Amino acid sequence: MNRLDMPKGYAAQAKYADDMPEGDALHRAAAKLQVLTGQRVEVETPHPRAAAKQLTERLDGRTLERVEAVGKNLLLRFEGGLVLRSHLRMTGRWRVDRKGAQRVGRPWLVLRGDEHEAVLWNGPVLELVRDEGHLRRLGPDILDVPPELDRMVERLRGEAGRREVGDALLDQKLVAGIGNIWRSEALWDARVSPWRRLADVSDLELRATLDSAHRMMRASVEGARPLRRVYRRAGRACRRCGGVIRSHPQGEAVRMAYWCPGCQRGGNEPKE
Ligand SMILES: [Zn+2]
Predict the structure, then answer these.
(1) How far is the CA of 255 from the centre of ligand 1 (A)?
(2) Are 94 and 118 in contact (CB under 8 A)?
(3) How far apart are the CA of 176 and the centre of ligand 1, in A?
(4) Nearest Cα to Cα of residue 112 among 127, 128, 97
(5) What residues does 66 pair with on adjacent strands?
(6) Which of 115, 204, 213, 222, by CA, is between 20 and 30 Å from 63?
(7) Against a cut of 0.70, is the pTM above it?
(8) Is 138:174 a contact under the CB 8 Å cutoff?
(9) Does the pLDDT value for residue 18 go beyond 50?
(10) pLDDT at 132 > cutoff 70
(11) Residue 175, pLDDT above cutoff 50
């Protein structure tokens, strides 16, 4: 069961910043919503905070033209050039139900098509925009096929060399779509410590890390059960070298980094 399918109470209990949906979760949500594209949709905003955004007035009866995940945003394009941007943060989730399904509680948004309805629960970021100018600031999407590894490396090289690679990988301006699970797993896979400074990580190592993140996240989009080697395994043995996995908050966003000091060496590794 992925986060987007969790019952409401369960999702609302999520309290770790590293629980945020990643690009692959957004892609699965986008895939579910495809059943509504090409249809004229009825729009309801049962939740008062969503009602205040006057989405019903502006969107009801318009055709939903496209749904796509861009980085960590879900973009719903309606006829007339209107784009609804949904960012799920920690608690938001989209469900697709059969039309007229019973539900308890007040979702933020209901988009009702011919046979299905898409329902957004706990949607903290929901805004209607006329164009996607602000999204141009996002880096290349890690889930693009093929991924633009050269451009990602170029963006990372444009950052201050003293910035730690584990922190930089979460910066959506540099690479869009990577969250805490996959930055931890990809760095482990490529044997790169999250604490190394960008200046001390070779292009080859950056590419290997990004390529790992891309492959693991694509597999997750296709439904593979993710293999966790370090994420939330602090104190347990590394499956590669037997070292003891550590965790420590990293970067301005203070997200928890997970790594194996045995096979991901170097950098400004925090003292135990
Ligand atoms: Zn190890």
Answers:
(1) 21
(2) yes
(3) 27
(4) 97
(5) 77
(6) 222
(7) no
(8) no
(9) no
(10) no
(11) yes
The whole-chain average pLDDT of the chain stands at 85
Lookup: tokens for 185: 């797993």
How much distance in Å is there from the Cα of 72 to the middle of ligand 1?
30
Span from the CA of 60 to the centroid of ligand 1 (angstroms): 54
CA 214 to ligand 1 centroid distance, Å = 21
Distance 152 CA to ligand 1 centre (A): 26
The pLDDT, as a whole number, for residue 78 is 87
| C-alpha 31 to ligand 1 mean position (Å) | 36
Question: How far does the centroid of ligand 1 lie from the alpha carbon of residue 263, in Å?
Answer: 4
Query: Which tens digits make up the pLDDT trace of 43-90?
Result: 998 888 887 777 887 888 888 999 988 877 889 998 877 889 888 776
Q: Comparing 72 with 142, which gets the higher pLDDT?
A: 142
Polymer length in residues for the chain: 272
- Rounded to the nearest angstrom, the distance between the alpha carbon of 184 and the centre of ligand 1 is 13
Whole-number Å distance, alpha carbon 260 to ligand 1 midpoint, is: 5
Instruction: Measure the CA–CA gap between 59 and 49, rounded to whole angstroms.
Output: 16
Q: How far is CA 210 from the centre of its chain?
A: 15
